[in-house]
Each structure stands twice: as C-alpha cells, then as structure tokens.
C-alpha cells in the first residue's frame, strides 16, 4: 500500500525518498547510518561520497527547505523515526511523511496525528496475493496449491 501510494503522489513533491524494510536494515552493521546516507542521496539528487559532515543536520536542513515526500516502511522503534525524520516541526509546508509500523503506540509516541489500520487478508485473498507475486497469476497451478496454502498459513 505504501509503495503504491508513493508512486501515485510522487509527482506532487520537489524531493522524495522511499526507505523500505527499515526494521531489517537497521539490524545490519551500520544499518541506520546507511539508511541516512540513502535518505541524503535521494533528497539531494546526487551521489555524495564524503560522509564526514553531519548527516542528521543535513537531513534536517533538506527536510525544512523542500516540499518532501518521505516513506519509512516497517519502522519498529521510535529512535529510527527520530534519526531519519526528526519531528513534525522540521518539515517544509506541504511535505508528507508516510510511516508503516506494526505498533500504533509507536506512531502515537512520535506524534503522528493520522493513522490508517490495514486489516489482515482473509485466506482466499492471501492466497491470491501470494499467487500473483509467486506465479504471476491469480491462482497457483494445481501442483502447487497445497504448498502455496502452507506458505500463506505460515506467513499468517
């Protein structure tokens, strides 16, 4: 949902960045540092190799000067939000931040004012989504139905 929303409204902003799988990437070596680099590169629209300067300060300045669309996907800790986007006061008028998280409490602690809860898919819709991603069609081949259902159940 976040990816589609991003693609649909991207053209309305001066700068944009989609940081996916934040939770997974932060757990890797230098994960948060690498996410900050990716954010700076996206917002500055150029590849910068010298990272000796203050990344957090640079991000804050960039967010305050341009109308920005920022998507942070799968955030699981308030410190990630603080490091990657600061607070709401630092954004230029018209900017938007979309955050996906499993915890609504995390969002409210960061001062997010509007939330949208995505409900779990029913078994049939989950199987259809899995089939589209895995096989490029609505329903798996008859030889893969049972195995596909096992994957869907496992993924919950």
TrEMBL record:
Domain of life, source organism: Eukaryota
GO MF terms, alphabetically ordered: ADP binding
Family matches, as InterPro entries: Disease_R_plants, NB-ARC, P-loop_NTPase
NB-ARC domain: residues covered: 16-137
Organism (species): Prunus avium
UniProt name for this protein: NBS-containing resistance-like protein
Single GO BP term: defense response
Gene3D superfamilies xref list: P-loop containing nucleotide triphosphate hydrolases
């Amino acid at each position: 949902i976040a990816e589609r929303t991003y693609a649909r409204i991207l053209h309305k902003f001066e700068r944009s960045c989609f940081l996916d799988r934040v939770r997974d990437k932060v757990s890797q070596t230098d994960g948060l540092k690498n996410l900050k680099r990716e954010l700076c590169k996206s917002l500055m629209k150029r590849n910068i190799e010298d990272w000796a300067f203050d990344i957090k300060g640079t991000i804050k300045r960039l967010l305050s000067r341009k109308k920005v669309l920022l998507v942070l996907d799968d955030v699981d800790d308030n410190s990630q939000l603080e490091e990657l986007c600061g607070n709401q006061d630092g954004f230029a008028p018209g900017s938007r931040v979309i955050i996906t998280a499993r915890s609504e409490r995390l969002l409210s602690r960061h001062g997010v004012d509007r939330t949208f809860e995505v409900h779990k898919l029913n078994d049939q819709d989950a199987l259809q989504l899995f089939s589209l991603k895995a096989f490029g069609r609505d329903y798996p081949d008859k030889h893969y139905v049972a195995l596909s259902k096992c994957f869907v159940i496992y993924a919950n």
